[in-house]
Amino acid sequence: MRGGRHVAAVSGASFDLAAGECLALVGESGCGKSVLASALLGLLPGNAQTAGTATVAGTELLGADEHTLALTVRGRLVGLVPQSPAAHLTPVRTVGAQIEETLRELTGLSRKAARSAAVAAAERAAFPADHLDRYPHELSGGLAQRAATALALIGDAPLLLADEPTTGLDRDLVNRTADELRRHTDDGRALLMITHDLAAAERIADRVAVMYAGRIVELTGARGFFGESGPRHPYARGLLNALPERDFTAVPGLPPELSDLPEGCAFAARCDRAGERCAVRPAFTDGVACHHPVTPAAARAASTKDVHRA
Ligand code: SF4
């Protein structure tokens, strides 16, 4: 950044993802989720630096040149279901024209063949064929979402990356969108769903990764995370307890500036379990980065106590 300042937008993010599996990456806005997605697609700004490896179906993404990214990665190895699909679609072209162009580019179909293939591509994402001649501004939020999903599926990419796919949708539409994404995952794709919508994550995720201040602080199975034992990291527990259907209690304080992270645990100033050891940054061990994680037994006892109190 200007003045030689560095922002550690994402550090130490490590995970794998199998075909047919959905990993939800959750955390507050600004924690680094979308930066991680941009890094995978080679869409970071020119002054960003990346290190490490990110391999999809044998292709290394980090450090790949623009030619490789354009011709083999975007749309082909990694399909993007974007945030705000209405803004992602080209406003002056019909949905059908955009699907046809994507088909020609990604599958090499002729102009003539692309027309009938566009109907099939739309159907895969439950986009009605009789709406293909509509412009993006003529679509509801749900239909724009389906159009964007149809575009993301055309290249049959083994990894779908959905960046806040349910933002701005009402709950019914959130559920429908999440279910559709799950259906495409069950067809043999891997899905990385970046979201701050924990209800959507609970609906479809197999595993959950929680990000805080640029780091993954917990990575665990969705059943345990949302179930009786709950998460082990204090921040992850705070996120869940903030939901209206749970305690509806906000995590106190604000996240630190990514350009000015503390030496120790970045969550320490907001954490009611913080102790002396937390002045040293905790390593990510056994699925959690915390010196004093909640043990599953203690979590179960707490939730039983809550039930009795209720
Ligand atoms: S390392 Fe310490 S401050 Fe950080 S989350 Fe764990 S207990 Fe809280």
Q: Can you walk me through this structure?
A:
This protein is α/β, with parallel strands linked by helices and 310 residues long. Among the domains are: 63 residues, no CATH class; 83 residues, no CATH class. Helices cover 35% and strands 12% of the residues. The strands form two sheets. Strands 4-5-6-1-7-8 form a six-stranded mixed sheet, sandwiched between helices. Strands 2-3 form a two-stranded antiparallel sheet. Strand 7 and strand 8 form a beta hairpin. Helix 7 packs parallel to helix 8. The longest helix has 16 residues. The C terminus is likely disordered. The structure holds iron/sulfur cluster. The site of iron/sulfur cluster has 12 residues, from loops.
Structural key phrases:
ABC-type nickel transporter activity, binds iron/sulfur cluster, Oligopep_ABC_C, nickel transport, disordered C terminus, alpha/beta, two-stranded antiparallel sheet, 310 residues
Please give a quick description of this structure.
The protein is an alpha/beta fold. It has 11 helices and 8 strands.
The ordered string of helix (H) and strand (E) elements is EHEEHEHHHHEHEHEEHHH
Helix content: 25-40%
How much beta, percentage-wise? 5-15%
Question: What gyration radius follows from the Cα positions, in whole Å?
Answer: 21 Å
The unreliable regions are 305-310
The strand line-up of the biggest sheet is 4-5-6-1-7-8
Main sheet summary: 6 strands, mixed
What count of helical segments does DSSP give?
A: 11
- Small-molecule binders: iron/sulfur cluster
Question: What general form does the structure show?
Answer: globular
Q: Find the count of extended strands (DSSP E, 2+ residues).
A: 8
